[in-house]
Amino acid sequence: MRVTRKSRISLGIAAFLVLVAAWVGYANLDPVLSIPPPAPRPSPNAYDQLNQALDMGFKEPTKMKHYDPSDPLAQREQLVVANAPMFARFRKAMAYPFMWPEQPRIMGSARCAKLFRIEGSVLADHGDIRGAIASNLDNIHYGVVTTNGATLIPSLIATVVEQIGQVDLWVYLARCDVGTAKATAKRLEHLAAQRVSMVEVLVNEKHQTQRRLMDGFRNPKYPWYGNCLYSVWAGSRRGAMHSLTQYFDRQIAEARKPFCQQQPGKFSPNQLTRIFQIVQGSWTLRSHNAATQTALLTTAFALRAYRLEHGAYTASLDALTPGYLTAIPADPFADAGPLRYKKTATGYTLYSVGPDGKDEGGLPCKEGRPTQDRSRLVPNPLRKTSTGDIVAGVNV
């Protein structure tokens, strides 16, 4: 009787081990799918040139309180002079095409953007409005082109850089002459045409994440217990890849819809996607708002030029083409169509329908309004739940 019981126990243990081995073997089968290779990088690549410029370091001869236009002019002038070589190297780099590499180094983009904003404020304080605008346009240029080949986090950083360049242009708008207004509208229109779509960024993120996950699966140094954890966590390697791919496909499909129709994706069973959803929630709204501000600024500078040449604002935006703009900018938040415009007794109201997609006739959102304190860009930023319109010069 004892022998039979021991035999049964032994057979049971053996069967269990066979099942575990079979399950681990199945769980560790590599996913079968075709992943596009990384896009070819230009040579020379502005990414490398910009890193060389940033490697020169930020020179700060005096400790600044805010690191923005609210600091004393003398301190800002010293900062600009100390960083002149970096400015020159940076502008030379931006003449080259830009493409993120597969394993990027996150550059000091936001701090660099603040330096260009300070440069612009110094020029403006000395009466050089054209130069001040050019410095901030360089920031927008930097933000737009560095979305090329970007995944979510680099694209989010690029959007922040673009927004730093936008905020002071509203201050300089009323002080520029007709030639500067025309040139600014044309350059902003050109930069908007280079903007990488949200769909393209998500596709880049999907393919890069797939490649990294597959590399991890195929790495001979990947520990056996890691494979087991994947098996318990996601069911199998194939299950993990399928869940990841399904998540991104759903988000890409959502990104093709108008913003007001996009629905936040549910967490995938594969927890690898959790970080992407957190980043994407912030990036989607920022990206739309940055595109909207560029569209509003483009139109506002064209309207400024028109008024200086004709003595009054136009009754319709159609009068701006083709003399001032190639086409009236589309409203990034709307289902379709251009920005909204109304001529008023004191000027005009130019606006986007905002995150809710509803035309409120130019009633501004409560959020996204700047204050007199220029040390803070937007103390109460726009939210996905914000109602009302994004009005030029009111909501930033």
Question: Which key features would you list for this structure?
Answer:
396 residues; mainly alpha; three-stranded antiparallel beta sheet; 3 strands; 3% strand
Concise structural overview:
The protein has helices at 2-27, 46-55, 73-82, 84-93, 109-125, 129-145, 152-167, 169-173, 178-193, 198-218, 224-234, 237-255, 274-310; strands at 340-343, 348-352, 390-391.
Helix content, binned percent: 40-55%
Average pLDDT across residues?
Answer: 83
Biggest β-sheet, characterized? 3 strands, antiparallel
What sort of overall outline do the alpha carbons produce when their principal axes are compared? globular
Q: Which segments are poorly predicted (pLDDT under 50) over 5 or more consecutive residues?
A: 223-229
Total domain count? 2
Task: Specify the structural class.
Answer: mainly alpha
| Strand line-up in the sheet with most strands | 1-2-3
Helix and strand string, N-terminal first? Answer: HHHHHHHHHHHHHEEE
DSSP strand (E) fraction?
under 5%
The tally of beta strands, per DSSP, is 3
- Tell me the span between the first and last alpha carbons: 84 Å
The number of helical elements comes to: 13
Radius of gyration over alpha carbons? Answer: 26 Å
